[in-house]
## 1
Amino acid sequence: MIQRLPVQDDDSQPPNSLFGTRTESPYHRPHDPFVTLPVGIDAGEVVKKPSLRNRRRRLTWACTAFTLGALFILCSSPFSNEFLVPGPLTSHHAPLVASEGGARCASCHANASGSLVSWIAGTFTAAKKQGLSQSELCMKCHEQSLTSNFAMNPHNVDPQQLATMTAQIPAAARAARPLFQPPVNHDHQIACSVCHQEHHGGRDLTMLTDAQCQSCHGNKFHSFEQGHPEFVNWPQARRSRIAFDHTTHAGKHFIDKQQEFQCSQCHLDDSFQNVKRLASYEQSCAACHNEQILDSGSQGLALIALPMLDMAAIETAGWQVGGWPLAATGDFDGEIPPMMRLLLMADPTANEILKTRGPSFEFFDFDATKPADVADAVTLVWATKRLLGELASDGPQAIRTRLQNVLGFELSSQELSRIITNLDGPVFQTAVQTWLPQLSAELSERKLSKSNSDFTAPLADDGADLRFQLLSGQSHARQLSLAKHTLNVPTQSSADDELLAVNPLTELMKAGGAKGAQTIHPQELLPAEEPMPTVVDPVATVLPLPSQVQAPRPSGWYRNDQTFRISYRPSGHADDCLQSWIELVARTEDAPLRPETQRLFEKTISATGVGLCRTCHTLDQSSDRSYVVNWVAEYRDPSIRSFTRFAHGPHLLQPELQDCSHCHHLDPSRSNAASFLTVDASQVVSNFSPLTKTNCTSCHQQGRTNSNCTQCHNYHVGSKIIGSK
Amino acid sequence: MKRKLVTLNRRSVRNGLLAAAALAVLTAVVYWQNVNLINSNFTTGYVLLGCVVFLAAFNLRKKFPMLPFIGSAAFWMQLHIYVGLSTFAIFGLHIAWRIPNGWFESFLALLYVLVALSGVYGLWMTRILPRRLTALPEEIVFERIPWLRLDLARQARELVLAACESTDVLARFYANRLSHYLERPRNFVYLVQPSGRLRRQMIAEIDELDRFLAEEQRPVGRGLAELVKRKDDLDYHSAIQGRLKVWLFVHIGLTYSLLVVAVMHLVLVHAFSGGFQ
């Protein structure tokens, strides 16, 4: 006989009360409230327990409640950041976390500073912190390395510029558009987190697979060795800034000098051997070219020069020019130096004549028998006198005012100090006192008479003694037959002569050069400092300076009282004053064509100009029709990144690659001389055969070594791109 | 000879192929998203969460059997098994086959692993253990085991009491050795790893008593030995059926915790995601 009892549960009913008795069944379900008891067993002997189902339900509720409570407590605790963070940051971001303390999540995540409600709201809306999205929060720290304007655009490039570059891609490749576009927003911006997945510890944040690169690039190919386009003219996106013909140097000049042509003599390693940088002028060029440069500047560059005047013709024509040095009289002769021409053209009367007569005009061109020529000559003489008067009274400020008037742009104090380089007002005063001692009175009187009558009216004929101070320090008073004024101009004392006689040209004069020249303020001969890229000079590759460079030559401004000139003699290579005049001219729009600057352009920025600068330093034309002189051989702007990079260092570990010609094949038939004469930097002609992909694929192929896209290509390049083509 | 754990039939092959095909499609989608710079974690995460919610809904199926077109329990069980097994691959895709290293994500992953592994364990046991039970001489309802155990103890006690008038050997043996064995459930070690060692020991001891018993008392000894065998079978049922029921405590008990943490994970990843919204 079998008793039937309900399953003992919390809510179980007394036996046989609610459920009643049931017929015996061989089957039993777990949730069946009845359990058959053997005969003789008292239900009270068994400890009452809830059913398994009920206990399981209770446990489930308990677990759920515990989980909710634990989450609430942990999220409300000071350790919520540590609990919720999905993983450690990379070491690069560790300082940021350390500095922000408890609110560190908010430094990157716009939503982190809010409550759970704001988190939920942020699930559906754009979360911003102080108006900044999460990617913009990244840029708060990375704005130094990425161009802020286009930081989130593909490649950090202006979309229009990118479209222009895309248009340069062959049409066949361009037509192969990707099936799906990457996740960009309506401004064609892509979030930082698309590629940079943080909170994965030490995993490379910049890791990008080839397939991901090709998600945007329609021109798809299998791998570097299969399908990657040829290099074409890479890495030469532009011609080199320094004109250098490898072919002629290797095949002729070095042979003539009986020297070995070694690449490493000019191409030096940086500290990591990653970059082959060019050696300095002193290390690589000076040994052969220093003398040429010094010789080219030995005649100097005149700022002021008094022309020869045909005083008889002037007097015959009824003009008066006032006092003029006797030694500067005779027939009309003498050129107007380009610098002086530039200053004179600030004078409207002189400007008209100089423009009319053209850039090659000289006083020699005046015909003494033609009254018009004589009148022009007189006008130019008075313009010259006014110029000298201004220089004597205002000093360098007069140069600045006139240059600004002529060139049409502001001249900074720094630029002015460079172009005059220690040439100050007293220098001009001394020159005027020496050459035209009555100039001040003449100009005052002329100004007075000009207000009453024609400005070319003869001056008062009261006679004058002109005193000349010659470079030897001796004072000579010469009676000038045509000068009618007697002026009480103080004669320069011998003591003053001594001061001015600190003449670094003494040695030169002793050697028979430039007699009568007196240096006004010598320019210190500083070691040529060419701005170099920010790379560390490896000590081992610094070459000793050639002895020729160390021998200083006299240089600076000097006055010649025999030729009545104030000139500048460059110190040699990288002379700052000469550089500043060249930059001044190059900065002028259409400088080679403008009457004001044409002569100075030819005199300085030409292969035969003073200093021979243009022989090696190429000229680039800017979009505003001005020019940039490439003084620096290598130009490495940290803000500029190329799409393609190459490090020599790892490659030079291979013995066969230590020979440069393994990759760089010099082609004797290729001359690049013509490309340096143009002002279009994109005209690239190399002495070397183009680099081919074969140079790389012998090693960089799948199964041998890394040949991923990012091995050679940068993603972030910025708005300024090298080699965009 | 080792028996095959799982017998493959047409239904298993069909369901397995369907699950594999669905996973292949999902893997292809994830690969396509990855190469197109689309964050596939959202895709795999939502699929995984959907699967977990669907698996949890299996319990609701039991609660609403009256709903039309709800399908049979066996159909739902098959879905539960194959969707549940598929979540392993989806989970792997979601975490990119790496071990989570944040406390919260590790907790979530641990919950998933416990629920999923308990499910696999349950699946394995429901395929294996019933065969072991059918090898036993009688079928026993798990809920009746406490009463049956008491019944065996009562029978043994009555047998001993009936025989103790002539000698106290059986009574002392029952009091010292047998009552403890018959009246109480087995320890945790036995529940984990059932063994007949104690049964053999107890029967051997009963056999040793024969020399101290009179001829008429020996059938009592044999009766006690029979009760020892039945108690051991009862303990074996208790251990095996207990396993079949206890794994659900882990599987179901943690399922809702998993859902709670998963929903919070969903909120967090959206609130802290770095994309443009």
## 2
Amino acid sequence: MIRLFANANYDFIKWRRWAYAITAAVIIPGFSLFLIRGLNYSIEFTGGTLIQVQTPEPVGPERIRGALDAAGIRDAEIQQFGAANEYVVRARIGRAGAVVEGLTETTAAAVDSALARALGPAPEHYKILRTEAVGPKVGRELQSKAFLAILLSFLVTLAYLAIRFEWRFGLAAVLATGHDILSTIAFIRYLDLEVSLVVVGAVLTMVGYSLNDTIIIFDRVRENLRKFRRQNLYEILNLSINETLPRSVLTHGTTMATTIALVLLAGEVLRPFALVMTFAIFTGTFSSIYIAAPLLMYIEKRWPGEDARGARALRPTGSVPLNPPPAAPEGGSGVRSKAAV
Amino acid sequence: MRTIRTRLLTIGALLVLAVWQLIPTNVTQRVRDPVTGRMKDTTIRRVPINLGLDLQGGIHLALEVDQSKGSVPDCADAIQRAEKVVRTRIDEFGTSEPVVQIQGRCRLIVELAGEKDPARAKSIIQRTAFLEFRITDMKNLFRDALPEIDKALRRAGVTAPGQGAAATSVTQLFGSDTGKAKGKAKVQKGKAAKDTTDQNAPGALSSLLFQGQIPGEYLVPEEQVPVAESLLARPDVQRLIPRGIELRWGTEVLSRAGRSYRSLYAGEDRPIITGEYLQDAKATRDPLTNQSVVNFVLSRRGGRIFERETGRHVNDYMAIILDGRVQGQPPVIKSQIGQRGQIELGAKPLQDAQDLALVLKAGALPAPLTIIEERTIGPSLGQDSIKDGIRAGIVGVALVVLIMVGYYRLSGVLAVAALALYVVFTLAGLAGFGFTLTLPGLAGLALSVGIAVDANVLIFERIREELQHGKLVRTAVDEGFKHAMSAIVDSNVSTALTAFILYLVGTGPVQGFAITLIIGIAASMVTAIFVVRTFYMIWLDRRPDMATLSV
């Protein structure tokens, strides 16, 4: 029988300051870059036109750029998309002089005719696989909606956790999730991923997933606080993280297997989504252990609750073994070794 | 034993219900009859899961009542009428399962799944907007105002581009015009236009415009259209356009002497009649002349208005304006017209007449519509997406199965069996509630498979712990399920809450993702907890003396 991290006894909380340093080193440059340069929003958010073109032979983005330049369509981005013979042309509203408002539909037609002139007539020499034209109004609507969605999901989770646990747990969980959003924004900025609606969906799913993970650990903390009355919060947190470690490894392993399969196989449209999800699983796990748990400790210290053992000590007492020894009636690891059929 | 039986019966009933949702059923579709070319209802059998546009290809449009030219008092009512009109038109157009729905208060969503010719579909829908008939500028008021406009532009420092070349084009153009000998009066008017241009040359605007074949018609070289557009949009030019005259671009591109021109029409600013009085229009080919014609019928009231107006405007030209664009060349009003009229399109193909008839027939739109969002996905891209998505899904699921069985042995097999049920339940949920499976939805499905095993992982880890603490197998299983429950419920409920918010706030693809996630979470709770528990019960029932557990 395979057992990963069974009876693990790592002092996770001890390394919290290192974890803060690492996460700050990731988030601060990425987030400042985000504040300075913004994100690479898809035309769904900015408004504009996207055209995906397929040619029988790879012609290179320069050829397409030339075709568009000849037709006087400037300031459009041209990108190879997935296969070598597929390209995406993006003209966003709002980029200096890119597209005039209200002309989004005409842009698609203009690109079409420019390509026809440069490459030859449509079905033989090039094929338009997909066009998207979004007016500026829809883009603005979506921006505010995405923001609203993230805010609402925060409030709802906070309320739910306040009911199911208590507000200290809820606050720690939501703050850890806030950390995940920041680090995901930094990640998106580093890779310069295009932020489409689906990517926002991935960020929101990450909110759910990260909370999910934090809740699993907090659930164990809640239980262990009841079970071991003599240990302080530092030890309880470590114990709980260690106890849930096999589960974390397994669940994140399986989920990451699926998201990595999506990254590699699901095609170009879903790749940003899958990349964000893969990172989200990583950061969600990290923050549950290194952000949510220490935060809970600080919150308990600052505003002690009834059962606030965090206020008593931040350092392990060392007097009580962190992991209760397995009470094995048949001796040692007998149950386990026989367990495999 | 009794509880096992009831549990099995429940699972069986759920499975039957799920499979029943998924067996191919008869679906009514409107399909074009290959013989007559008409649309007719047919029934086909297929699995009742709706595929999103991104998976089967098609065109998605969001339309709104255009409020840029004065607000529409009741846009909800306007959009409702528009919806009706667009619906009938799309039905005629030939898409098997068109979606026309009102979103929010005054937005119309049109989805044409599997549409193979998006350009044509789009142009028809785009033209659904606003139909009006206007008399062209018969007194040449705009042309007479041109010198003033040129003067104003010269004062503003705008000069004519490439004056010499333009002058030769003028002569060429007029040469071909006179050759056609449309009528004495018109030719003379044309000459007059030429004179004025020459006197005041170089005129910034007039050098771009060439007199067309009918009064109020001008031709602008295709490459100069943006320049002309920007000049005409200037406020100082706008002020000088004569009162009662409005300029409208035509849809057609004409080619003369190797250059292409776009037509620009000066016409009265008030329509003599609008589309709301139109009742019917039919395209036919006149058997005698072999010309395409469109016959139209007006309402009784419209007939009276039209009779009065056409009586006043015999021999005048009438521009058919849709969405602010003049359709084809304005026909001449040959005589007073009442309720019934005919538009002759000459040697143009019947398709043009049919499209015009289509536009006229349902053209009673009360307000103009603008496209605010448009997505077209080619069918091949949809096919690729399905292929890639399914391949990624299968690989992902295979990895999950491998990990679960490798790590948890027989218990892992139970979890995988439950996972199979989970996939069936989720698909059935999508079909049963009539939700649409999109590409992000497919991703959500693959992702939720990963998340779905989480509940089982939690339970199995808990059972292992209990066994490690020396509990008997049966107790360990009971305790494992009991203790894992709070974590499972709390984590799933919080994920479902975020998915629900995603559904409420999101649109289209995001909603599809949220829905699959929510259904997936619900299904995974049932399978991971209830079904796996039942499997364990059967297992332990068969071997009550089991001392060890394969977990």
## 3
Amino acid sequence: MGKKILVIDDDPAVVEYLTTLFEDNGYATCSARDASEGLEVARREQPDLITLDLEMPGEWGPRFYRKMSEEKTLKNTPVIVISGLSGHKYAINKAVASISKPFDRDELLRIVQENIV
Amino acid sequence: MFKKILFATSATGACDHAARVAFAMAGRFSAQLDIFHVIGLPTRAYSQVVIDAKTRERVEIDEEYCDWVKEELRVYYEQLLEKLAGNHTMEVAVGETHREILRKVRNDPPDLIVMGGSTRHVEDSAFRNVVTGSTFQRVAKAAPRPVLVITRPAASFWGGFSRIVVGTDFSEGADMAVEYALHLARTTGCEICLFHAVDISGLPLGQFLTQDDIEDRLRVARKRIRSRYVPQFGDIRNYTVDVWEGIPGLEIVKYAREKQADLIIMAHHARRAESGEDRMGSVMEQVIVRAGCPVLSLNRTVFK
């Protein structure tokens, strides 16, 4: 069974693209459309890595990260921020990487490979 | 809590992060958002010729030009306006920016003023993102309303408040900041993180302090916070008290980052509200320009 990646993004097209990309490269995936659903899925699925959008309806990405990092079983899960907002690399201090939309798929896969344990 | 929010904007990139927060807050609190822009300063008193603050061009002000600027504002914030569920107004004025903002606040008092960073900091300036702008300084010192300032993009990614850091130096102003934070916590259910930084910035300059001295000071400060503020918390149980040592402005920023706080509340001590010489305290200023979340600035007049 491949390592599992949770994709959190409110844009269904981005979710579809990322889950397909990861599955084609041997990873299992799960997804969520917002921060609260993301937290539920993360608790249930215990992913090995999370890709996180910043701007989402309701709570934004940094608040998801705060809640996630307060949970014993999730706090060390690597997070990659994927966002189109300027200054996104400073949004989540402890994220393992931060990449801009539109992104290079090979670069993303390299970052995932480097950080998934 | 916030039913009327005044967003004072230069409609430039310097205010984009503040716009994100202002629109998000208006949505969250179902508040009316008043978007206010000062076109520029007349070249002479009562002159119709004005230097446009955004384009730096000399323009002749008439109703048509004002309407054109309003339309430009509408286009600039089009995407955010589409998502805004509540009411909004759009107004432009001519004059000295801080005076016009203060006049607007006096005539049509909001519950909160939202402002962005300075527009004067050119890309290669050494002061870029290191000091706050003069308009913000003047408004924050004189406005009888809290001023929320967002200077970094990263400070605008939270989508609301739920964990507030209040920095205290045990001054009268800090007591007011704590009082305001408690009010916010009671009305919105936020968590409060009360923080004091013991100033040891003199250490690298030769000030002699043993580790026991520092830890004694930390203990005293913790005790002081407990006796001075905790009795006021009443039924608020969701709070933490922390004291760190270091350079106060930086420690507050670091503490907020570590707590992943989405708001910092601070009060400043300027007594002469309109005085141009009286700059805001350096701790407050450093927090504002460095924080990874919005900073709410309070002055004495907010509490009068």
## 4
Amino acid sequence: MLRRIAIVGASLAGLRAAETLRARGFDGELTIIGDEPHRPYDRPPLSKQVLQGTLAPEQALFHTKDGYDALALDMRLGVRATSVDLRVRRVTLADGTWADYDRLIIATGARARTLPGIAPRAGLFVLRGLDDAIALRRELMNAPRVAIVGAGFIGLEVAASCRARGLHVTVIEALPVPLSPILAPTLCGMVAAMHRDHGVDLRTGVTVTDVIGESRVAGVALSDGSRIAADVVVVGIGVTPNTEWLEPTGLTLDNGIVCDGTGQAAPGVYAAGDVARVANRWHGDSPRIEHWTNAVEQGVHAAENALAGPGASTSFSSVPYFWSDQYDRKIQFIGLARRHDEMVIVDGSLADRRLTALFRRGDRVVACLAVNQPRALIKYRKLVAACASWEAALSGTAAS
Amino acid sequence: MKVVVDLNQCDLHGLCVEAAPEVFEIGDDGALHVLNETPEQGLRAKVDKAVRECPTGAISIEE
């Protein structure tokens, strides 16, 4: 009989876990612990609508106060979980309080990386949390020139939002093109051209060697010897999973919490979302995935298995999905393009920046990218999920 | 149950179509259509999945 479930991380994964537990009839004590002062909120709008000023920060919350109250949670906000004792099943918080549990779900997410060796100062930002977005938005009102370090999805979305505000934007990327760890070179080139056409000064193949300005940023120095003047610098160079607090527990930590296919890291202990490495049947590996949909799926999956117990647990299988909104383009991606052998544009064109691309590995279709073609993504999602043959994918027919 | 979609919120991710194709469709016009606004209870689990996986929170269920 489960009486107490604790969720560490008042995040998307943590919230979906809590909702699932209640929806499945769990009526015991449900504690959710978050180190930020906010109730769970949605991150995708932060780099877009919130920065552009079309969405008030409080509108990023998933539910109204009544909606949260209906879940009957013991919500401990603004206080960090500092340790967990797996033997006595107790989570201890920074304020000295604790939460005992029969099942534990860890969804502590990840934090934005910062530039190594660069001290914090006014005007130097990362964008990860709601408070980051609120502070950055305020600064952008009086910052005509913005330098963005890193041309990943966060950096590029911030660039597009800053251009929408009419700001002068420079993006600095160490690799030759944006997004190259994720996409094929021609598609990366298309994204680069799109940003340049929108007035972004995109500098690739260079790194930031220093941030100029003592008490407040004045710009950045680059490895090619040039300097970029900037009133605000935003760093988007990836994230680090929040696992340090678990180091004494003996859980397997290796770029995230290593879990089996049921989402379990230890008996009665589950992990979900950006912090978790759940064995994934579709993937054939235990990847750490930083996507919105993954947080939902793993939060739900962990909750269901926490209630079901080991005997009745299901194993996780999911095709990674993410999207990015930049200017008037919606980029959607399903699958895994790393180590692909071939990329073919099956509809639309690079010139139109409206296209559908399929990725082959061996004789299978492993990924699909759609730019402003949402129906195509739905069609190919099924084929990618089924690991359909390349031939079947190209002919657009169902897998046999 | 009654399925309600806020088309102003809908961003055409298509995850609802994947979760519950009996209920949701993106039509030839490129817009989301609710094929069945009052699906039978047997589709509840699928519709619930569509609700929780919608990235814009555009779908709700009225009992």
